[in-house]
């Protein structure tokens, strides 16, 4: 691989004796990873079911390496949200933040959602995770991944950090800043990052990271924990960003991250002031473990800090929409959604717990998108299907993952079923894929058009 000469010279100077081991990784294949979804399947069942050869990622209990010749993104289990394809080192970040069910969590730079899906799974769909992405198109991709994973406690927003602060000052127990960065650690994965690299960009990213961190600080509760991560090697965007953050706030404590499985400490000689405590941060190097480059820091806000002064969202659903939904619930579901219901025009959402007022925010998804009220009938949303279990519905249609019928469904075709039962949850080997409506022996396909990737 042809690397920028200025990058090579810089890394040689920084790494000295270690440099040749580091550069030799560019002649090796990158590792491929996927993470199973504990919201839908347990580890043992997953390993028995999945048709690929897998080996565990040592620093992530839900993570596995798979061979380069497999294509897990094309398997129906991917469409059913049984796993997320993710670079292995990236899986370490959420393990460091480790939120608990019921907490309030912000993923400030969240798209496409690798870390959001991992954090939300740890929260077992309890509490609130705000997944924010500044770019509208990337925010939509984030929202789709959250849907596929069956996550019901996420508020997906499309805001700048400064706008979010106005709504969430002192609100969160935990915050992840997986910062935009120069991406040096992804050169083996992303050839564009190599082409566009420059030292001037490194410095610009460092400025941006400092401003994002300052806004994140304001949104953290007293006693709250923030994790900062990048996928780059440059000290300016890592040790020096954290050093500057600690210098500008006197109530921050840098917490120690365990250095096991080849994970290395941050380098004090790469700070501006020789800051010894920077060794509590973690560096993942491609020549020290099986994965790409990452940096992770964990910081506690000790306070005192002002507490959140906002208000919570209130139900706002017109009676007619609620009536249509309740009829659907009675006819189709075997469970009741006991959540605050919220409507955006004719679309009905079940809000996460502790959901703050949504007024004035650009909302892409507000918890679980239940469905849409359409001229006297309720049409369930794809997100509802992916959040259910077969026993939650009256009728389901199970398709085998290697059957022609399963691929027909994923292509958006109708299926002949011979019965007349109305809404059916279509599943693959018992895991929900989407909705179908059965009328006079034919199943009309409600698999979303934008997801019909097998056509
Ligand atoms: C490293 S990526 C996030 C990856 C994501 N956390 C994941 O695990 O899938 C950084 C994200 O920050 C977003 N971003 C760029 N500028 C930003 C800004 N000024 N404030 C917040 N986010 C920003 C980018 O659009 C990008 O999606």
Secondary-structure topology with pairs:
Layout: H1 5-15, H2 19-24, E1 32-36, H3 43-49, E2 54-56, E3 63-66, H4 76-79, E4 83-85, H5 91-97, E5 104-107, H6 114-122, E6 128-132, H7 136-148, E7 154-157, H8 161-168, E8 172-178, H9 191-195, H10 199-219, E9 220-230, H11 239-248, E10 252-255, E11 264-265, E12 282-284, E13 294-301, H12 319-332, E14 341-344, E15 347-350, E16 363-366, E17 368-374, E18 377-380, H13 382-387, E19 396-399, H14 404-410, E20 415-416, E21 422-428, E22 431-439, E23 442-445
Parallel strand pairs: 5-6, 5-8, 6-7, 8-9, 19-21
Antiparallel strand pairs: 1-3, 1-4, 2-3, 7-16, 9-13, 10-13, 11-12, 12-13, 14-15, 15-17, 17-18, 20-23, 21-22, 22-23
Bound molecules: S-adenosylmethionine (SAM).
S-adenosylmethionine binds next to α6 and α10.
Q: Can you summarize this structure?
A:
With 455 residues, the protein is α+β, with helices and mostly antiparallel strands. The chain is 28% helix and 25% strand.
Helix content: 25-40%
Structural class: alpha+beta
Report the end-to-end length measured between terminal Cα atoms. 35 Å
> How many strands appear in the DSSP assignment?
23
How many structural domains are formed by the residues?
Answer: 2
Describe the structure.
With 455 residues, this protein is α+β, with helices and mostly antiparallel strands. It folds into 2 domains: 5-301, Rossmann fold, CATH 3.40.50.150; 393-455, Archaeosine Trna-guanine Transglycosylase, Chain: A, domain 4. It is built from 14 helices and 23 strands. The strands form 4 sheets. Strands 5, 6, 7, 8, 9, 10, 11, 12, 13 and 16 form a 10-stranded mixed beta sheet that branches. Strand 14 (341-344) and strand 15 form a beta hairpin. The two termini are 35 Å apart.
